[in-house]
Amino acid sequence: MPETDVTRRTILDDIRAGLDNSALKRKHRLSSEGLQSIFDDLVAAGALEMVDNEYVIPAVRRLSAGNIVNDIRAGMNNAELMEKYALTPKQLKTTFDILVGSNAVNREEIRDDLSLTPDEHVREDQREMERYFIDFELPIVEIGPPEIDGKVRDITEKGVGTIGIPSRIDDIKKFLVLHDEFVLIEPFMFEAQCRWVRDDADGEHYAGYEIIGIDEKDLRDLRQLIHLVTFYG
């Protein structure tokens, strides 16, 4: 099989099945350079990450909304998008729905040539569930005084990771999450307690918080946001 015929999705499925680098090269008749090139592409697409000098499939995969939107507007077709980001047709459809629902693209910009055959439905059902996160720029504000602007790094119903907000462990803060680019969701507030902090070499502040107080309406908006940006393959 020529190296150009090997899909990134197939390589991911083989890694998940336990094939090591030697087995991947034998199965797909790849050189070391050819396999490394595929690994590099999968890392860029968020489908692989390096842990202890080994490529692994992350538990939560991040897809860059900005990159996908740029590729759509550059004229990349659906087959090319699925290959670049190692997505199935079902996953690409869901990605389109999220991008349109968040006003990142217009429905007219989406190519309407995706369809799932019965065989593809079977493969979707049999494939191990995968979690994806569409990575938007999401502002968060520490309610002051003074008010401090930051960005959301990750968010669940239980907690939030932030960038750009100084903190100390056990600090309790009130946050406002703003997301003007998302439709159907109002900004929401919650109270959270700092559980970990880290500053990188450039002095950027990272912190993780446990949500300890949120009212019913704000919790609904939080859940809606999570539903909008998170989906399963």
Describe the structure.
It is a single chain. The chain is α+β, with helices and mostly antiparallel strands. It has three domains: 3-58; 61-135, no CATH class; 139-232, Beta Barrel (Thrombin, subunit H), CATH 2.40.10. It has eight helices and eleven strands. Strands 5-6-7-10-9-8 form a six-stranded antiparallel β-barrel. It has a three-stranded mixed sheet with strand order 3-4-11. Strand 9 (188-199) and strand 10 (205-213) form a beta hairpin.
By CATH's scheme, which homologous superfamily of the largest domain applies?
Answer: predicted glycosyltransferase like domains
Strand order of the largest sheet: 5-6-7-10-9-8
* Helix percentage range: 25-40%
The tally of strands reads: 11
Order of helix and strand elements from N to C terminus = HHHEEEHHHHEEEEEEEHE
Which overall shape is indicated by the principal axes computed on the Cα atoms?
A: globular
CATH architecture heading of the largest domain: Beta Barrel
> How many DSSP H or I helices?
8
Into how many domains do the coordinates divide? 3
Biggest pleated-sheet summary: 6 strands, antiparallel, barrel
CATH topology of the largest domain: Thrombin, subunit H
Beta-sheet strand percentage?
25-35%
Gap between N and C termini, in Å? Answer: 28 Å
Averaged pLDDT: 83
- Taking pLDDT < 50 over at least 5 consecutive residues as the criterion, the unreliable ranges are 116-129
Overall SS class: alpha+beta
Q: State the CATH class of the largest domain.
A: Mainly Beta
